[in-house]
Design brief:
The protein contains three helices and nine strands, in the order αβαββββββββα. It is α+β, with helices and mostly antiparallel strands. It has a domain of about 140 residues: Immunoglobulin-like (Sandwich). The strands form two sheets. A five-stranded antiparallel beta sheet has the order 5-6-3-8-9, with helices on one face. A four-stranded antiparallel beta sheet has the order 1-2-7-4, with no helix packed on it. The protein is globular and about 50 Å long. The C terminus is likely disordered. It comes from Yersinia pestis. Keywords: Glycosidase, Hydrolase. One of its GO terms (molecular function) is polysaccharide binding. This is N-acetyl-beta-glucosaminidase.
């Protein structure tokens, strides 16, 4: 093969390589853009999971105390595919278990965690809701325990905040507590009273 043909082949190879890289980046950014439209909702299911059949101690919970929360992610757009992505969020409680084998939750540092898909992830179907039941350490007592501004990443794409969490209105992504859900024990009667006395009306409480 002469020098001209070699140079031409090299140029073609480089061109297609750049096109492939650009397309890959666009795909990653498209995934992030789609993930940023997911509607997030937190719902406290059980603040005293140890009293209701959960072996919190076996999960590694301090004081053998844990809570159960349902995270729902609703996709109102087109199907979201792929497994090269992560959604980052803050949780003041350590996540001990995830009861959906399509996802993992990893603690990174401080209160920062991330949700990632497993090999079993089947995508976020269009116009459907995915439930991710999690078990966390200790209790969830206040609306402010559930923090806003989750963000999505994928490869080298620019991270993007999930719009449904980009707010100071906690009720936009949190189902209010009902009844005595906030109680740490069946007879607990002072957790939120003490909080009110210390902080007054500056803090938003569920219930």
């Amino acid at each position: 093969m002469n020098k001209f043909k070699l140079n031409a082949l090299a140029a073609i190879t480089a061109t297609f390589g750049l096109i492939g890289y650009a397309n890959g980046s666009a795909t990653n950014q498209q995934v992030v853009d789609q993930l940023s439209t997911l509607k997030v909702n937190y719902k406290l299911l059980d603040n005293r999971a140890a009293d209701n059949g959960v072996d919190c101690a076996k999960l590694g919970a301090d004081w053998a105390s844990c809570n159960k929360v349902m995270i729902t992610l609703t996709n109102t757009g087109d199907e979201i595919k792929g497994q090269d992505w992560a959604i980052y969020f803050h949780s003041i409680r350590m996540i001990l278990a995830v009861d959906n084998d399509q996802f993992t939750v990893t603690h990174l540092t401080g209160d920062l965690h991330k949700i990632e898909p497993t090999a079993k992830f089947a995508g976020f179907p269009a116009n459907q809701t995915i439930e991710i039941p999690i078990t966390g350490e200790y209790w969830q007592l206040f609306a402010t325990d559930f923090m806003p501004r989750w963000y999505a990443t994928s490869g080298d794409a620019k991270p993007k905040v999930l719009a449904s969490t980009d707010t100071e209105d906690i009720n936009a992504y949190l189902t209010p507590f009902t009844g005595d859900q906030w109680k740490r024990t069946k007879d607990d009667d002072d957790a939120r009273i003490t909080f009110r006395q210390k902080r007054g009306s500056e803090n938003t409480l569920c219930g």
